[in-house]
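The protein record now logged underneath.
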Amino acid sequence: MKLYEKLVSDIEQLVEKGVLLPGERIPSVRQTSQQHKLSITTVLRAYVKLEGMGVIESRPQSGYFVRPRTSDAQNAGLCMQASHPSPVPAEVHVSRLVLSTLRSIGLHDAIPLGSPYPDPSLFPWERINQYAGAVARRNRVWNMTDDLPPGNPQLIREIARRYMENGLAVDPDEIIVTVGATEAINLCLQAVAKPGDTIAVESPTFYAMLMAVERLGMKVVEVSTDPYDGISIEALADIMAQQPIAAVMVMPNFQNPLGFQMSDQRKRALVQLLEQHDVPAIENGVYNELYYGDAHPSSLKSYDRKGMVLHCSSFSKSLSSAQRVGWALAGRYRGKVEELKFLNTLATSSFPQLAIAEYLQNDGYEQHLRRTRKAYAQQARIMAAAVQRFFPAGTKISHPQGGYVLWVELPGDIDSMQLYRRALECKITVGPGRMFSVSQAYKHCIRLNYSYPWSVGVEQAIILLGKLITEFL
């Protein structure tokens, strides 16, 4: 038996005997090399073999972890399978459903488990408002031309600096400030595709992506997506070989609603595939700052060498949702996106841009983010444990690596819209799965928001949801 095979066998036995538990981190490559007196190459070969066998999984910037086995994970409510959507393009009609469910969030003082927005109490509202007031006092007369695209130079410099701090060199001239990430996504999609075109998306996918497609009169084809690894590059390649795809819209980091983080290897492979077919990617990176690991995740933009990735983001999920400040890094489509920005909304107000720019320059943004990440990571574990405890047997949940939403697959033939309406009567909101697809594939799923501090009210809401689900069964 070769050395790496012996190590594979030893680790496999430790997992089988329960010495290493599902979800538990295993020693790093360097630690194992030192402990077993093996070369790093030998250990890496063993870990790659174990990963291929499904015994362990790598998490970017975090190391290797024991992967939940299907039987164990199903019993514990941990394991989900990759989706298998139809490869046939379809029209999109989700906006009416999304609007009605979002309106319900603020009604009747409901527990906002269905909210797509983070808990605003974690945002530094007071400091940002102070900067906004100072900006207004300094600029008693405002020239409209100061608001024109691409945006305020001070904010653009701070955005570029933030990317640099996270390991990505960004040309400030590429940045176009928008009214939130939603406008950035809409502008980028409009720049690369036309009505009637087909756009490839993850399945399930964030409904804001679907709404952008619906707004522009395009179609979507949903691509098989693994709840741990992200969009299937193999399935996407098959689809692209069979039909014309105008663009691909993805969330590689902490996807809403599944919460996964694609590995660097798969991100690189995705960009390479798209470059081969000359198909642009619209990357939604609004949750990139909300990671639970030790280091900031890479983006598709990190591997873009031909300007094919249009990266969109905002401060709405990490700093302040009130100001609605986002941006796009539009690559080779930069000129077109800037023109569309001017035609669509003319400009983004400079007051919120300057307020955020001064906060980034003078206050502890990173310290704020560390507090937020720690809170979300802790609340993610509590929410997952509560769902496993109070929801009926057969419930499966996602394993988010960042962000603040949990995807729940309910047992049986439960219609999440009926659950949504019944829960709303009890002053609880949930995100029904039908919002995240053009098909009925996720009608038995719901999305839960865990950004709000765990409280008696939230716990009672989870307990009551579990009882309602059991009644439906």
